[in-house]
Amino acid sequence: MTKHPGGIVLTSLQLDRESHVPMFQQLYQAIRQAVLSRGLLPGARLPSTRTLAKELEISRNTVVMAYEQLLSEGYVEGQIGSGSYISRFLPDELLAGRLETEKLQAEPGHEIKYRPKRYLAHAPMKIWKGRGGLPRAFRFGVPALDHFPYSTWNRILNKYWRSEPQALLNYGRIAGYRPLCEALAMYLQIARGVRCEPEQIIIVSGSQQGLDLTCKVLLNPSDTVWMEDPGYHGARAPFLAAGAKIIPVPLDEEGLDVTRAEELSPQARLAFVTPSHQFPLGMTMSLTRRLRLLEWASRVGAWIIEDDYDSEFRYSGRPLAALQGLDHDGRVIYIGTFSKVLFPSLRLGYLVVPPNLVDDFTAARAMSDQHSSLIEQAVVTDLLTEGHFSRHIRNMRALYQERQQAVIKAVDKYLGPRLDVHPDNAGMHLVGWLSKDMNDETVAQEAVTHGVDVLPLSVFGSNPLPRPGLLLGYAAINEAQIQEGIERLGKALK
């Protein structure tokens, strides 16, 4: 690059006018790369925005935006419009470090150790993307918002507002609203077989925060974690953000294969399981397997996270007792949520932790966001103590069973052998199995173009699955929407 009175000539920069990347972003990246690679040296004067725009045949505003970005990040100094220069204060070690980082990021299989980047890289964006707005077929994890007891919720909420609840508007107990912890302890003992006192319950802003807090309290960098494969993708990000190594453990009809897990990593620090209704495949962990898992945790001093995300919705018999109720050594951290039972934006969940960890979890909760909304905690307390919550669960259990049957009936009518769906005796979703020659990610992408939200089963697995499949959430949509959704899915499968 040669100089002229207006600054360095930058006409050699390559800009792709057909690219989806904005032109100013391309220009910014090209100049930035030239700085990092020493193609542009510190102190070199950049051409004026007008001159460069004319040379590159682009708008002056495009150049101004690129220069402003470079100025804000410290690559350029001076004042745009009166002279812009490559920064004189870019030390060699900074340039070398950035170049090395970019080189490492480009190397196949290299894992950057910077934890926030690792967190984002493994966050389940494919799953979270587009989850807002009204639910449509077949979005998973959303309850029947059309059957939520709005009048009951409003009545209880208005009762508190009428009483001018100053105490509920102030800061509250970090571990959670005490009456809610008491009501939850009683409910969990009766409905889920959980052994706990109110002091062991930590109210959190959804189960995802519960996972994050658990990782912060229990995991050290380089610890290993057993995780069901396929399993809940939302758990991967906090584990990896904590610097842990995930050990994918295969499943069989009894749930997580403990024998295989011990062969893979006998001294793991933690195991993450969904024993009452495995996510996403739906099997229940057998009693033998549960006892084996607890014995391992007690023997090696490991911890178990039990995610009990939708166990209330069991269609035959009583809900199965929680794994935590079998734990006599204080090795299980139990996670539950109201978001999938009441409504997702409530963002209210809870942990049941062993007595010796209560102080640690409370301290971690204090460093997060202090506590969840006290008003909403008070409303949920009344739902529990006045029997509205249990009644709602019973109603939804019957409704979801009807909606699951509607899915199976519609699949049989419209899709036939193209999608293999079997009844499940619990939960809010079904797995639809595709033929082995199909790609579930391709099918899911095609389904979106037909107005249907399905998730490919492969996004939940670390290893290839025996068959491709789709996750079909049915709880949030009525029978007419289910039938229309299956017809649309049929068009996508063609």
Protein architecture, described:
With 494 residues, this protein is of the alpha+beta class. It folds into three domains: 3-98, Arc Repressor Mutant, subunit A, CATH 1.10.10.10; 125-142 and 391-493, Aspartate Aminotransferase, domain 1, CATH 3.90.1150.10; 149-386, 3-Layer(aba) Sandwich (Aspartate Aminotransferase, domain 2), CATH 3.40.640. Helix content is 42%, strand content 14%. It is built from 18 helices and 17 strands. The chain has helices at 23-36, 49-56, 60-72, 92-106, 115-122, 125-128, 150-162, 166-169, 178-191, 207-218, 236-241, 258-264, 287-300, 358-368, 374-385, 388-414, 440-449, 479-493, and strands at residues 3-4, 7-8, 45-46, 76-79, 83-86, 201-204, 224-229, 245-252, 255-256, 270-273, 303-307, 332-337, 349-352, 420-421, 429-433, 455-456, 469-473. The strands form four sheets. An eight-stranded mixed β-sheet has the order 6-13-12-11-10-7-8-9, sandwiched between helices. It has a four-stranded antiparallel β-sheet with strand order 14-15-17-16, with helices on one face. Strand 7 (224-229), helix 11 (236-241) and strand 8 form a beta-alpha-beta unit. Helix 7 packs across helix 15 (374-385), helix 16 packs parallel to helix 18 (479-493) and helix 17 crosses helix 18 (479-493). The longest helix is centred in the last third of the chain and has 27 residues, at 388-414. It starts with a strand and ends with a helix.
